């Protein structure tokens, strides 16, 4: 199935790409929910989390290591960031090609950030 993400990978439609290698592409979300909001996608089309196979484990892990790499490059890793992957309609998925949302640049904790010092476990 062709999705908007497939068209971005194939350069059929433009995107503000911030990272790319042979397996992963990351680009700015067109409707950002935070100062830093990028989508990190595998170039291999996988429709939903439910469709991830054992042979995809390394590839899916690479989505997370890409998020960590970008956070470090953008000097936001210490303040923190959120990564989210939605699955199917009730989970909020709108494009059926798995993608990791990486959001940062403002407090996003719940309950709302209080400025309290971090506690150790």
TrEMBL record:
PROSITE patterns: HIT_1 (PS00892), HIT_2 (PS51084)
Catalytic residues identified in the record: 99 (tele-amp-histidine intermediate)
A GO molecular-function descriptor: catalytic activity
Coiled coil: none
Xref: Pfam families: HIT (PF01230)
Domain of life: Bacteria
Domain HIT residues, every copy: 4-113
Motif (Histidine triad motif): 97-101
Protein name: Histidine triad nucleotide-binding protein
Organism: Veronia pacifica
Source species taxonomy: Bacteria, Pseudomonadati, Pseudomonadota, Gammaproteobacteria, Vibrionales
């Amino acid at each position: 199935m062709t999705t908007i993400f497939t068209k971005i990978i194939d350069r059929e439609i433009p995107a503000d790409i911030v990272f790319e290698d042979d397996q992963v592409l990351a680009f700015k979300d067109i409707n950002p929910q935070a100062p830093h909001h990028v989508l990190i996608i595998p170039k291999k089309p996988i429709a939903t989390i439910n469709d991830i196979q054992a042979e995809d484990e390394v590839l899916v892990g690479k989505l997370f290591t890409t998020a960590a790499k970008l956070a470090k490059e953008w000097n936001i890793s210490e303040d923190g960031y959120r990564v989210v992957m939605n699955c199917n309609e009730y989970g909020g998925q709108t494009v059926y090609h798995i993608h990791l949302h990486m959001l940062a640049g403002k407090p996003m904790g719940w309950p709302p950030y209080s400025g309290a010092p971090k506690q150790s476990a």
